[in-house]
Specification:
By secondary structure, the chain is of the alpha/beta class. It has a single domain, classed as TIM Barrel (Alpha-Beta Barrel), CATH 3.20.20.140. An eight-stranded parallel sheet has the order 1-2-3-4-5-6-7-8. Strand 5, helix 10 and strand 6 form a beta-alpha-beta unit. The chain binds zinc ion.
Amino acid sequence: MASDSDLKSFLRKLPKAELHLHLEGALCSHRVAELAKKYGVELAHAEIHQRYNTRGFAQFLELYKWATSFLREPDDYAHLAEDTCSNLREQGVVYAEITLSIGVMLLRKQDVRANFRAIHDVFEEKFRAAQGPRIQFVFDAIRQFGQAPAKEIVELAAEHRTSGVVAFGLGGDELSLPLADFQPAYERAASAGLHLLVHAGETGGPDQIRDAIDLLGAERIGHGIAAIRDPTLMTRLSQRKTPLEICPTSNLRTNALNIQLNATDVSLIDHPLPKLFRAGIPISLSTDDPAMFHTNLVDEYFHAHQMGLSLDELLQINRAAFEQSFLSPEQRAILLAQLKNYRPS
Ligand SMILES: [Zn+2]
């Protein structure tokens, strides 16, 4: 590539898949301001700006809680879905697995079915009109809320399998409850035919990744960067081909990177992505919570390039995201063929 802008433009047009994206994390500050106005909440511009520019995991969870408190009815979720759909399209994403924080909806005593219908219908309509990517959904429980809501979320996910819900996942604070608590929920999810995801080894240690695989049967790991601290675990992930969903900017902004590297002053080029990838561990690249971390998928690929990955390696990672996805074999074949036949204009 002649220049950085040529590379970015190539990456933007490249048909891509994104596997780790929280719908609520795509809630931008502009939309929060509109929703606050709708609900008669006075918000100073400075407050929104300050909340959207914090750093650290606890601060991020606080922002997530605060911003999502303005998502109060299905219509609010529909607008968020529209924003997200156009952002994905603009980024050249042709397939995404979108995680919904059902745990937060339940906590706020919202009508999960109505919210999901509103979200689903927006993405479905856009996809059918060739104005948006193909989407499948992950229903996510929040670890610190405990196993009772997790079980309820599994049932809701099972009920919506025919509407594109393909997986059950667990996010939130890794240092709260042990993963063993969630074994019954994961057993039920597996028996309902759902795929199994776990956020592990983001701020927690390598033991979290081992537990996610051994106790819960996780098929992919959300983040999993703690593996870099444990060569035996890295070999195991590489041999059993367990994919890690890597979100570099998120790791920087939540301080997960500082924690895993045990260093105070870190930047994106210190991210272990190249080492994990070259150790033969399947990885994909995602934004996690793009609006809250001020990132997008093209930037994440560009950052990976700055970390030292060649264009050929970036292309391998993009292709692998389709392979690691929960698409049906037929749909996967269609998208992989589209990728294979892609020629930059
Ligand atoms: Zn996440």
